[in-house]
Task: structure prediction
Amino acid sequence: MTTLTYTPHKRIILKGHAELNEKWLQDRIAENPAIIGLGEIELLDRERQQDRAGRLDLLLADTDADTRYEVELMLGATDESHIIRCLEYWDIERRRYPAYDHCAVIVAEDITSRFLNVLALLAGTLPLIAIQLQALSIDDKVILSFTTVLDQRSLRRDDVTEVRPAPSDREDWVKRSSATVMQTADEVLKIINQHTKTTYQLNFNKHYIGLSDGERSRNFIHFRPRKNHLRVIMPNAWNAANVSQIQEAGLEAEQNNDRLVFNLTAADLKSQNIIVTKLIAVIVEQYEE
Result:
């Protein structure tokens, strides 16, 4: 068995350092985004130009959860300008790509108690993560340590997005998935309309298919068709009772913040129609309360 030995370390302040500057830090995170502690995420872009608003340091993504992280790096202590900039970039990206969940992420060497209190207040109204960074020198090596000091990601999703998603049509979705999967979406829509006071129709967008009452989006249930199955997303529906219903149908329930997500094939809908219908009735009732 290897014996562990104690080695003293020295903290390095990156702000003002001749070599270990912000670009160096960006490079390290870009090489391995998972080091900041947000799971298995990947780099989408860096120094991303924002319209009339400068450049976003890093855009990271959890592709399985359809979540994007707008990351602002701050060497030294937190300050107002970086916080405002981070929130501004988050707002621009979420408006540009409303089909994804978005979360503002602030990474700083020193998150003071004053600013942590301010961030905690903001976290009640928007998804926000604050991460404190430490660079440590051990012998001739540098270690980066990231500690999450604030994590508020789960917010209730409104029925109507603030900007209109990029439009699409049924033909486009048939090409991207299949006619069979789109027929499954039609059957689920029929079940929804059997339990609603209003008759809904499919609302085709570039990244997902939602619901519309003919005037406004009503995405209490929406879909992402794939080649072999229909991905069903139910916002604000993750709870023990609903998960139990999905599992009873032999389907695998996935959690994405407060969303209940599961995959549905034509065969699943036929064999488990009663259970799926029962779950949809519960979701409709909760929505129309």
